[in-house]
Each structure stands twice: as C-alpha cells, then as structure tokens.
Amino acid sequence: MEDTYKTITAASQEVLFKDKNSKFFGYAFPITSEDDIKEHIESLKKQHHTARHWCYAYQLGTQEEQILFRANDDGEPNNSAGLPIYGQIQSFEVTNILIVVVRYFGGVKLGVGGLINAYRTTAQLALEASKIITKTIDKRILIKFDYANINKVMRIIKEKNLNVIAQKLELDCEITISVRLLEITATLESFKNLYDVNLKTLND
Asked: pTM of the prediction?
C-alpha cells in the first residue's frame, strides 16, 4: 500500500496559452475541501469578469476509496474542456488540487479538437508552473491513560520519535499522535504491553 501522494502547497503563477486569437489563462490551486473550489472560481470570475468560460477540474483525496473528482466544461462542447484538464491532473499524478482555465473567445471557432488541445495544454502549463511535492498519508491515534502511566507512555513516544499533535495531561490523560499509514501497525504494537493504556485510530 502506498502512503505518499503528490500535491502542491501554493497556487501556481498565472499561465497563458493563445490559439487563433482566443486566450486561455491557467491556474492551479491547492485545495482541502469543495468549499475551497467555490471560493477560487468566484474569485477568478471577478478577476476575469469579461471572459467567456471558466472551465475546471479537481481531485480531492489520497486513497482510492476516498477520491472525489469533477470536470466541468462550463458551456464548452461536452468533454472538450473539463476532461482534458482532469487528464493532466491524472498525468501529473497529483491530488488535492483544482485547475481552472479561463477562456476569452477570440472570434474564431477552434473546433472540438482545438479546444481539447488548448485546455489540455493550458492545464499542463499551470502544473509545470507549480511546485509539486510529495507528502505522506498520516493518521491520528488517540492514546488514553491514567497519569500514573505517563512515564511509560512518554518513553515509548520518545523512543519511537512519535509526532505529538495534541495533549491533555491531567488525572485522565490524552495524547494525540500523527503516524504514517504504513507505520500504524508497528506503532500500535509498541504500546500493546501497557494494559492500562487505550489506543484508538481516529478517522479524519
């Protein structure tokens, strides 16, 4: 099982592709939810209020069962814009990303083949203008224990160099750690001899 994925951490620079007087402006944005998509598209519609089309594609999720994606032609002929953009997302193997291509019509029809080429090329340019990084798929584990066990728990956390992201150290203690997907089984195993310590994997 893979526990890494590729994405971008910052919006790309604006790119421009021209064909027969039509202008295609391309943008790539990192996203974490569908709400982000709406915000970016609304912002581009204000920026390019005289444009004809705002076509886009996005993908969210890091594992097969979680992946959400959509391709939108925004008035262009069916499958001539959104799918060619999405094809570049797949080609670059990136996720948690939105690519928008804004078109200004130049007075000359490009035909479906010309549109497919223009939207695909602009999406490719936007991705090439982005900094693509590899990230790990991490899961959170909640550790619950009595204060009397704090030294034992902390020793394992230190030995295994585990990433603590939240903690509540009172009579009843809770520590949340972040662990790479492929290391979860080994991490749970390292606590199994502590009988008064409960571990639970959290769903994000």
From this structure: 0.81
